[in-house]
Amino acid sequence: MHYKTILEAVRKQYGRKFVTAEEAVSVIRSGDRVWVHPGCAVPNVLIDAMVERAGELENVEVTHLLGVGPAAYTRPEMRGRFRHNAFFIGKNVREAVWEGRADFTPIFLSEIPSLLLSGQTPIDVAMIHVSPPDEHGFCSFGVGVECTKAATEAAKIVIAQLNPNMPRTLGDSFIHISRLDYCVETDTPLWELPQLEGDETPEELDMYRKIGENVASLVEDGSTLQLGIGRIPDAVVHFLEDRRDLGVHSEMVSDGILPLVEKGIITNQKKTLLPGKIVTSFVLGTNTLFNFVDNNPLMEFRPTNFTNDPFTIARNRKMVAINSAIEIDLTGQVCADSLGFRFFSGFGGQVDFIRGAAKSEGGKPVIALPSTAKDGSISRISTRLREGAGVTTSRGDIHFVATEYGVVNLHGRTIRERSRLLISIAHPSFREELERFAREHHYF
């Protein structure tokens, strides 16, 4: 049955719920906390309507994970009207966080749903972006289940942007229209987050190719992968084309997995948890990916308290978790969320997956990073984390580390062994300096 026909029937039963965006957001009051569907699911029509009410509102907290789009509620002139609370800092809100106009809450992605459901962080209004209801009245959270499902369960009021362009994704990915307080019909394209455009220099391309090759060397036939978005995951997939029966269990997936699925490399048949399924919590990518996940039984969308639970992750045999870092010191401490005192991103799923993969039978937790930053002027393998930098992954959690110069395993290694191994995969220009520091501080 066509969604328009179904909508007509739904309107007859739930007609009072169908309102304009302006009417829907009129329920937001000063001092409310508003959850916004993040990622490529940002409900742009509802956000625009909320921001239009800025002159009537004070101290509204807008809470979400990484989002895309303009995030107009973080503009300087919105000070005192809206204040963003980031559970993961995206590019569009970073300046506001740096200038003190927005907040950052460091927390593991696996723990956010319980934070919301327990009432410790109460949600007054959840603004979500979903598919139109099916013949049974169920709307899909589409490209992002993550923590939004928990937010709708915890919220006092749920406002839904219904959009036929939102994929109908399968798994624990549905909310019944009876649970929605207000429905706003739209027909707008989703925000896309394409893979990086490839404006790197030949030297940079070669560096990422080598990192990808080094990481891929750890992936055996039948492994289950956590692959995110970015240059390193994109580089890794190019070196997996001779593997067989790979699987995916990841908090998010991007367009990068599609070639491996199309070539029959990702089959999910050897997975020990939900075999036959790509398990994820949200997708970041383009319409090509959105069309792929639409009504696709291969995909299993679950909230992050499932996908990112280390005990759940560990149920996947040969779990290979691939994460990146800003810097790592000679003892194995990893900083992935801050540039000194400047908060840059967030914990996300790094620690969840590092710990889950560590407990997996045959699992391999991997931190992958270029050896240098700023055109080779700074070593990312450092004598110490820079002042103000936070430890995302502790030296006790670290296992494999990869750069373009190789891959080493630090697990169970002494500080002397760790520092020597890390120096061996640092950029040659910095190895002497790193070794001198290690000797001066009696690492070896």
Give the arrangement of secondary structure elements.
Blueprint: H1 3-14, H2 21-25, E1 33-36, H3 44-52, E2 60-64, E3 82-86, H4 94-98, E4 102-104, H5 112-117, E5 125-130, E6 138-140, H6 148-154, E7 157-162, E8 174-176, E9 182-185, H7 202-216, E10 224-226, H8 231-237, E11 247-248, E12 252-253, H9 258-262, E13 278-280, E14 282-283, H10 287-293, E15 299-301, H11 304-307, H12 310-313, E16 319-324, E17 327-329, E18 334-335, E19 338-339, E20 342-343, H13 350-359, E21 364-368, E22 372-373, E23 378-379, E24 381-382, E25 400-403, E26 406-409, H14 415-424, H15 428-440
Parallel strand pairs: 1-2, 1-5, 2-3, 3-4, 5-7, 7-9, 10-11, 10-16, 12-14, 13-15, 16-21, 17-24, 21-25
Antiparallel strand pairs: 6-8, 17-18, 19-20, 22-23, 25-26
Helix pairs in contact: 7-8, 14-15
Task: Give short descriptive properties of this protein.
15 helices, Glutaconate Coenzyme A-transferase, 7-stranded parallel beta sheet, 444 residues, alpha/beta, single chain
